[in-house]
Specification:
Elements lengths: L1 H18 L2 E5 L1 H11 L1 H20 L6 E5 L11 E9 L4 H66 L6 H35 L5 E5 L9 H4 L12 H11 L1 H21 L5 E11 L10 E11 L8 H66 L5 H36 L12
Parallel strand pairs: 1-4
Antiparallel strand pairs: 2-3, 3-5, 5-6
């Protein structure tokens, strides 16, 4: 009883929540476009670009001047001039390298933002497929429930006519009740996939997005889900890998991190260069300070060399910067090494999922459909018992669910392949590789 109540709550509470929002059904491309435009995480990422651009201005800044005032007191005040002036620190060889470092960081930010945008697009594809897959399983379960209800009616008619014992009707009733619980679980899975889909879209708009109500095993889904047919002749791995590795965001990011580390080393090393401080201003003596009782005034100028690397020459910072550069270079090699292995795994997983899907379509489904039709006819005419039919029906249900999962696996394998080639429009034709 508790399980039934829980399933009812799982089903109806989300429905009540969704009633407060506009529900909009979208196809996969629309879902991607909506996410790119409205995703909160992406909007936050786009702000990183503006911050990085401002950091270039910060790095290129001039130092603000200092105002200086000297007023002598006591005996010194009777002879020494008072001074009002400014001092300005002139950095030697530092602004340019700081600006280059900021530019390198901007380029790194842009690459990371592009990678994040691409990753979220792939997340949308995967969440959309998982939602349609959950609906497909629910559709299969509901069809099986209808079939089980028909079997129960047949069994009840046979029992009433004395053609079969009453246990057949009891057995059919139990099988139907089991199927109802499985349908309820499938409905809960659809709701869970629906909320996961909207979590990926992550929009502040008061809209609840849903997939267009189609099942995975419809023939026109491959084009709609932007996936090649499983019968496509995929090119060899070597033809794909070279092109893919040139476009991977993580490799580009790792390479840019090397450039950032190089520019950072230059910035640190320039700290050893002393800076120049220029001073100047107005000096004056009042009549009480001069022997001839006259007001004297004039200007003064001066200069200082500051930040001489005498007691501290920034050796630890320079050493750390060199180590960071070495670390970035090692990370680049590691990323390339892992990329080729990840791409290899994604490619062969795609090949296996395509082969499995083709086997389902050409070898398993057709025979299973004929077998279940013959089994129903045999039971209705008394040529087989209910137990055999229920076993056959459950086997057929498993095959249909397995086929749905094989479809979902193929779609997700294609998405994972796109993740590894870092392209949402990867051309598979060998002649164009």
């Amino acid at each position: 009883m508790k399980k039934v109540v829980l399933l009812i709550l799982i089903y109806f509470i989300p429905v009540m929540c969704m009633a407060l929002e506009e529900v909009q059904k979208v196809n996969l491309q629309q879902a991607i476009d909506i996410t790119v435009e409205n995703n909160i995480d992406l909007k936050a990422s786009y702000l990183e670009e503006a911050i990085a651009k401002n950091n270039i201005k910060i790095a290129n800044r001039l130092q603000n001047p200092d105002f200086n005032a000297f007023y002598f007191l006591g005996a010194a005040g009777r002879s020494e001039p008072n001074q009002l002036g400014f001092s300005e620190l002139i950095e030697i060889g530092k602004r340019g390298v700081r600006k280059n470092l900021a530019k390198a960081n901007l380029e790194l930010v842009l690459k990371n933002v592009d990678y994040r945008k691409f990753s979220i697009e792939m997340d949308v594809r995967e969440a959309y497929v998982n939602l349609v897959a959950a609906k497909s399983v629910l559709d299969t379960m509901e069809q099986q429930q209808e079939l089980q209800e028909e079997l129960l009616e047949i069994a009840q008619r046979h029992v009433k006519s004395g053609f079969v014992p009453e246990i057949d009707a009891i057995q059919a009733t139990i099988a139907l009740n089991q199927m109802i619980t499985q349908v309820n679980t499938a409905k809960a899975n659809v709701k869970s996939a629906l909320f996961e889909f909207n979590k990926i879209i992550n929009s502040k708009e008061n809209i609840f997005y849903d997939s267009i109500d189609k099942v995975l095993y419809e023939n026109n889904n491959f084009e709609e889900l932007m996936t090649p047919q499983p019968t496509t002749k995929f090119p060899d791995f070597d033809l794909i890998s070279n092109r893919a590795l040139e476009n991977r965001y993580d490799i580009k990011i790792a390479k840019q991190e090397i450039e950032v580390a190089k520019q950072n080393l230059k910035v640190i090393m320039r700290k050893r260069v002393p800076d120049l401080e220029l001073v100047g201003g107005y000096a004056y003596q009042t009549m009480t300070q001069t022997d001839d009782r006259r007001y004297n005034s004039g200007a003064y100028v001066g200069g200082n060399i500051v930040n001489l690397p005498v007691f501290y020459n920034y050796a630890p910072e320079i050493k750390n910067a060199k180590l960071q550069l070495e670390q970035a270079e090692l990370n680049y090699e590691s990323v390339k090494n892992r990329a080729i292995k990840d791409l290899n795994a994604a490619y062969y997983k795609l090949m296996i999922s395509a082969a499995n899907l083709n086997d389902y379509e050409t070898k398993i489904l057709t025979s299973s459909e004929k077998l279940i039709d013959l089994s129903v006819q045999d039971y209705e005419t008394g040529k087989s018992d209910l137990t055999s039919l229920i076993v056959m029906k459950q086997s057929y249900k498993s095959i249909i669910v397995g086929y749905t999962m094989a479809l979902a696996e193929y779609y997700n394998s294609w998405t994972n392949f796109l993740r590894e080639v870092n392209s949402d429009e990867f051309d598979l034709f060998v002649s164009e590789l």
